[in-house]
Design goal:
The complex is a heterodimer of chains A (about 220) and B (about 240).
Chain A (H helix, E strand, L loop, with lengths): L1 H40 L4 H15 L3 H15 L5 H27 L2 H9 L4 H31 L11 H12 L2 H33 L1
Chain B lengths: L1 E10 L2 E11 L4 E5 L6 H8 L7 E6 L2 E2 L7 H6 L1 E4 L11 H11 L5 H14 L15 H13 L5 E5 L7 H16 L3 E5 L3 H7 L2 E6 L2 E7 H6 L4 H11 L2
Parallel strand pairs in B: 3-8, 3-9, 6-7, 7-8
Antiparallel strand pairs in B: 1-2, 1-4, 4-5, 9-10
The chains are: A mainly alpha (about 220), B alpha/beta (about 240).
Chain lengths: ~220, ~240
Amino acid sequence: MLVLLSNYGPSFVEGFKYTLFSSILALFFSLIIGTFMAIFQLSKNKFLRSLAKIYVEFFRNIPLLIIVMFCYVVVPLYWFQLDGFQSGTIGLTIYTSAFIAETIRAGIQTVPAGQMEAGLSSGFTSSQTMVYIILPQAFKIVIPPLGNQFINLVKNSSILAMVAGMDLMYQGDLIASETFNTFETYIIVGLFYLILTLQLSYLMSNLEKKWAIRE
Amino acid sequence: MIEFKHVEKYFGAFHALKDINLTFNKGEVVVVIGPSGSGKSTMLRCINGLEEISSGILLINDLDIRSKETRLPEIRKNIGMVFQHFNLYPHKTVLENITLAPIKVLKKDEAAAIKEAEKFLNKVDMLDKKDSYPSQLSGGQKQRVAIARGLAMNPQMLLFDEPTSALDPEMIGDVLKVMKKLAKEGMSMIVVTHEMGFASEVADRVVFMDSGQVLEDSETQTFFDHPKEERARQFLSKIINH
């Protein structure tokens, strides 16, 4: 295993970088899109509500691979060029944001109605109340399930391998087919994923503890 | 400053408010009493637009609350509300609970808002708890903080929706003391409550409601000594002799 690592170390690290970068981008944007979709789902505006409902139900219920292949194959055919990394990351963002929307919506709904009323009664608009009063409480509640979504996201980023996204899984496949040492290669790849996901779950449980103390 | 003219309110098929005609003036302390489900809270919540009226006219400082030009946040800035269940923001300290709206809504600078907040906390006797979180306070303490939060907007009027109903008996006195102090200082208040002692001591007027109607609207003395309505008499005898 050490031989494999010393021979192909740079390739593993290269793949790790792409996986990390793709995960961070997808995490950031799916958190933003997911939050908006959650708020839209609870909006009084019928158009926004339907839009969010359709978005969530559609992308949550089709395979991630279809979204990614669509970005990789169909989008360049009719609209603009996307490489493997880009289509993988965009697909991952679209897919994950649907799940994050559901998670955050559930969080918002556990905040008592009295909080919205208190905010409105102080002269806040409903969107200000959402930002200053409801969302901070909702996020605190959904940290554990949100952590699950983030971990799933990192693992799902291995989908990039299907579209030559240069990620960890892709590099692993290349190394395995070059060396025929599948056993050790995939163990090393797995360990690299663990470096990311274990830190992420550690970070999330720390955040949970930190916020729990403050209240 | 607040005028109900033939106001009706339905919740689906339920007729919650029936032909309400009421006036609340500046500087007045009005206590609204009546059995549970009589529409007292609904009436109060219509004033700051937490409930929408179904028909009739409701004027707040001559502004029609149903008119398209009326912006509810503008109305609410001038009318504070104190809730039965306090509704403090659990993720903010006592001080932050009070300064949030003055800073974000009234655009006060932070130092001035904190100074003001401390003044109001002192008034409700809660200054020593300014860095606590709501979960660390008793019900009575939470309610006093909620009152300070309402005051911090310098409202023209404060609405109280059963402010002592969720409190342990020994906490009620502290909250009522603060409310009496405010009343004596001339704050305009509308108080939905079952506290008859408070009503007879500080109210200028008592409004008695039952099953969605205003049955009596009299000066406090008159109401307690000679209630006009039989229903009000029954209610009073039940509540006072229990």
